[in-house]
Amino acid sequence: MILTKVKASRALADVEPQYVFWLCDGTAIKNIRELHSALSRIDEGAYNYHANESKNDFSAWVNDVVLDPKLASGLHKARTKAEALTVLKARIAWLNKKHEKHK
Fold first, then answer.
1. Residue pLDDT, tens place only, 25-47
2. 3-state secondary structure string, the chain?
3. pTM score, whole prediction
4. Domain of 78?
5. What's the number of domains the chain is made of?
């Protein structure tokens, strides 16, 4: 699948207010950059509340709301917060590059 500038922009943009992701600590997340920032500061317990053997709220939100199945798949495969941060950082950098390339 070819990622267009529009799709890259959409993946980086804020979601509609009704689709904001709420962390268990009350933090509201509107985009994947904010997700990266929030994950970098939450503890492992909060991460594991949202991503564990029975669910992965981060992956589901990215897939269903942000509409980035590639990032969602990477987050789903991540077994630790550190792995999730690595996946997010790489995808954000790649999307930024795609977005800038098509300006």
1. 999 999 999 999 999 999 999 99
2. CCCCHHHHHHHHCCCCHHHCEECCCCCEECCHHHHHHHHHHCCHHHHHHHECCCCEHHHHHHHHHHCCHHHHHHHHHCCCHHHHHHHHHHHHHHHHHHHHHCC
3. 0.91
4. 5-101
5. 1
